[in-house]
Request: fold
Amino acid sequence: MDLNTVTEVISPAAPGCWRPGDAWLGGGTALFGEPRPDVRRLLDLTAAGWPPLTVHDDGSVEIAATCTVAALYERLGRHAIVRQCCHAFLASFKIWNVATVGGNLCAALPAGPMISLAVALDASLLLIGPDGAGRRVPAASFVTGEGTTVLREGELLRSLHIPASSFAARYACRRGSLHRHGRSAALLIGRGSSAGVILTVTAATRRPHVLRLPADDLAAIPAGDYVDDVHGRPIWRQHLTRHYAAQILAELS
Ligand SMILES: Cc1cc2nc3c(=O)[nH]c(=O)nc-3n(C[C@H](O)[C@H](O)[C@H](O)COP(=O)(O)OP(=O)(O)OC[C@H]3O[C@@H](n4cnc5c(N)ncnc54)[C@H](O)[C@@H]3O)c2cc1C
Reply:
């Protein structure tokens, strides 16, 4: 991306800094990857000094939006589901070292594996508005479409809170892509529960879908919600979704 419209980098940035024409900056690996002629100032969150990851006494975990994928892997990689989601990036360690968990959620790409992880782990997200007021939203409702989220003008994602029970659950994960190291065309995560399987469908669809199997029917996902791009046709993504959902249900049942 040409940065010739950017006149200033505010580092470190705080919620109150925001004004029209600003963009919050995480690792910049998505932001600098496409033209953003509207951006005048970059508000650098990575310099804010937020502790990347905090384990609370009750076993719940707070992940700062600025936590890099590499730091997440290092601290929580003992959990298979965390490892699998980190490896679901179409990106090497070079990107892992700068890309942030929050940046992945806010970029809201269908193939955002930190979105998949946050939804599957039942994370709650802390958002801070320009006036410093906070609100919490479930990860499952944060992404609303391709590149769109519930973030309001000037609002930032501060952190993800993951309950301790999420780390004790059993998971099954399936990922499909046109190429071995290609971008995810479908990423499904099942979580075993006493009431069946809680299935998170991502990458195949424009936004995450959460279903309870076997009660819910995959037909509840509208056909128009399947992504159509160079990484896979909607009909194939729909097929992968059904195929993987059946495998996950069998594995966790
Ligand atoms: C080779 C390569 C492979 C990639 N593979 C994938 C992939 O497989 N899947 C995928 O999803 N992405 C992929 N990406 C894109 C990108 O690397 C990731 O989405 C990454 O996680 C973005 O994080 P970041 O910290 O760099 O975000 P940034 O680029 O800094 O920010 C992304 C967007 O979110 C906003 N933002 C950032 N942080 C916050 C915050 N805390 N609050 C509010 N808004 C914020 C920014 O303003 C910007 O609009 C890839 C990129 C490259 C270069």
User: Anything to note?
Assistant: The helical segments are 69-76, 80-87, 93-96, 101-107, 113-120, 164-168, 234-252. The chain has three domains: 8-46, 53-166, 169-252. The CA atoms of residues 219 and 242 lie 9 Å apart.
